[in-house]
Design brief:
single chain; 147 residues; alpha/beta; five-stranded mixed sheet; 6 helices; 5 strands; 20% strand
Length: 147
C-alpha cells in the first residue's frame, strides 16, 4: 500500500506555497514544517512584501513552527521546501536542530551545498530532488517573466 503522507505529498503542499509566492510577485519558494505527520507551519518567501532580505520561506516556517511548539528546537520535525536552502537558511535550520530537510530543486548558484556543506546539524537527514522538475520550472518561469 502506498503511504498517502509521504515526501511527495508534503512537497506538493510546499509547492502550493511557492505558487502563492509566485502570484504575489515573490520569488516562488514555499515551505511546510511537518511534525507527527501533520503540517504545523506553512510559509513562502516574503522578502518583497516585508522589505526584508531574511524573510525566506524557510525562515518564516522555522519561526512559525517554533512558536507553535513553544520552543526553539524542531527535533522530530521535517521541513519541506521547494528550493535547496541558502547558507543563511541552512545555518538557521542547523541551530533549530531539525531532524529532516526535503527540498525540491537544487540551487547551483546559492545553495548551501556549494558554500557551507556542514551548516546543518550533524544528525539532520537531507533528501533533495523531490518534485525537482516542477519546482525548477516554476522558478525558471518566474525569472523568465521578470526579464
Amino acid at each position: 500500500m502506498i503511504e498517502p503522507f509521504n515526501d511527495e505529498y508534503f512537497m506538493k503542499k510546499a509547492f502550493s506555497e511557492a505558487l502563492q509566492a509566485f502570484d504575489e510577485g515573490e520569488i516562488p519558494v514555499g515551505a511546510v514544517v511537518v511534525s507527527a505527520g501533520k503540517i504545523i507551519a506553512r510559509a513562502h518567501n516574503l522578502t518583497e512584501t516585508l522589505n526584508d532580505v531574511t524573510a525566506h520561506a524557510e525562515m518564516q516556517a522555522i519561526t512559525a513552527a517554533a512558536n507553535l511548539l513553544g520552543g526553539k528546537y524542531l527535533n522530530d520535525c521535517t521541513l519541506y521546501v521547494t528550493l535547496e536552502p541558502c547558507v543563511m537558511c541552512a545555518g538557521a535550520l542547523g541551530w533549530s536542530q531539525i531532524s529532516k530537510i526535503v527540498f525540491g530543486a537544487y540551487d547551483e548558484k546559492r545553495g548551501y551545498h556549494k558554500f557551507a556543506n556542514k551548516a546543518l546539524h550533524p544528525k539532520t537527514e537531507v533528501v533533495g530532488g523531490v518534485l525537482e522538475t516542477e519546482c525548477r520550472e516554476l522558478m525558471q518561469e518566474f525569472f523568465r517573466q521578470k526579464r
